[in-house]
Amino acid sequence: MTTATRSQFWHSDGRRLSGFATLLLLSPFFAIIGFVFIYPIGQLLYISFMEPVPTLDNYARVVTNPVYARVLLRTIWTAVLVTGLAVLLGFPVAYFMSRARGTVAALVGVCVILPLWSSVLVRTAAWSFLFQREGLVNSGLMAVGITSEPLKLLYTQGAVVVAMTHVLLPFMILPIFGSLRAIPNDYLRAAAVLGATRLRAFWEVILPLSLPGIASGSLLVFLTALGFFITPALLGSPQELMIATLVSQQIREVLDWPFASALVGVLTLFVTVLALVFSKTLRFDRLMGAQS
């Protein structure tokens, strides 16, 4: 290898790859992303604007038609509910994981990660059995005397929110856990020396330093919940339609590809803007739970 060629691939210190070499190594990754993600999204956006003729009517339908506008708002509201519930349930688990040691820590970690090894369809089907009229939830409520007859739990927004929270909870717990684990124990000892109680140390030390993990988990859960399909399709009702189910309906039943593409375009724009806002607010390493 000549000196000129070597300078293209290595920095002057001879230990680090140059930008050209790094880009060359990453080119297969970029090619795959472009083929399986950017190209299909681009095709959908092209269809939404250009078929049957160049027009913005498909996007106008999403905004002006009250039915489709309600579907979009319902999807966002459901994602907000799922995210809030995941924070409330996930933070105590992540905090306990960060303080546990040995076998207990390993057991809790397995309980958190284990659901990720099973299919979303399987977990959603399990919730459908729990929520049916003769299911375990209704049987338990009647057994303790809370209700005298079965409640309508299945095919409701509540069932969708609960099941989606269960599916997405690990994506909230793990970033918060990483953020909590990065907090040095010296901070808590210093707070105790200064006279802070455990509760005050939690509110003024642990919680503020864990906010990057909470923000990261909230972003992951919220963006994933926006495009959820299986759980709303199996547990929700036609009156509680969400945007992913509406897109599938427009493609498979109505065969209106331009309008379905416009729905995807609106959702993609919303997700992109939200991701950009988060990236400007918090650095990437802070989003991943690292402490500066």
TrEMBL record:
Keyword Cell membrane among UniProt keywords: yes
Domain ABC transmembrane type-1: 72-278
Keywords: Cell membrane, Membrane, Transmembrane, Transmembrane helix, Transport
Subcellular location: Cell membrane
Membrane topology classification: Multi-pass membrane protein
Coiled-coil region: none
Transmembrane segments: 20-42, 76-97, 104-130, 158-180, 201-230, 257-278
PROSITE patterns xrefs: ABC_TM1 (PS50928)
Family matches, as SUPFAM superfamilies: MetI-like
Predominant localisation class: membrane
Family affiliation: Belongs to the binding-protein-dependent transport system permease family. CysTW subfamily.
Protein name as annotated: ABC transporter permease
